[in-house]
């Protein structure tokens, strides 16, 4: 992540579909948009957990579809993280995308995962939507959370064994919260607890 107000840091949201949410979003989040051109989506896919070996051809129309799915998925995920009811429009958007043919995975001669040639933006759209179906119907669905920092809206799934992940990244929001708690403890009068960070 490259925040305007700080150092570059690594954010792993724990699932492919949640990786897409960090590329922008609906409403106010449009100012964080990183998918302006089809090549931006190709670059995102190459840096995602799909891996750098994915060959992808993306059209403008496919890019627009991916952005629409992302915005629906963003709102859907935020609702899930906060225990709000599911919006049927978001469900419909995810399910429609998942119904299309996905990217075709295969095993490379060296045993690693590779992708069949001819990958398209439409295939990528479906693969991301299917990942969302798996995530939100799977065992980690209750572990989808928003970063606990007050002004950070990054969404992630906590796949750690203890299940106590609170921050987008310890090196960003986690450390800031620790520093705040530390300051509050030092300045708080005796017997008064530090405020929740
Ligand atoms: Zn955060």
Automatic annotation (TrEMBL):
Q: Which InterPro entries match?
A: ABATE, ABATE_dom_sf, Znf_CGNR
Annotated Zinc finger CGNR domain ranges read 143-184
The regions listed as transmembrane in this protein's record are: none
Known PANTHER family for this protein?
BLL6575 PROTEIN
What protein name applies here?
CGNR zinc finger domain-containing protein
Organism source for this protein?
Streptomyces flavofungini
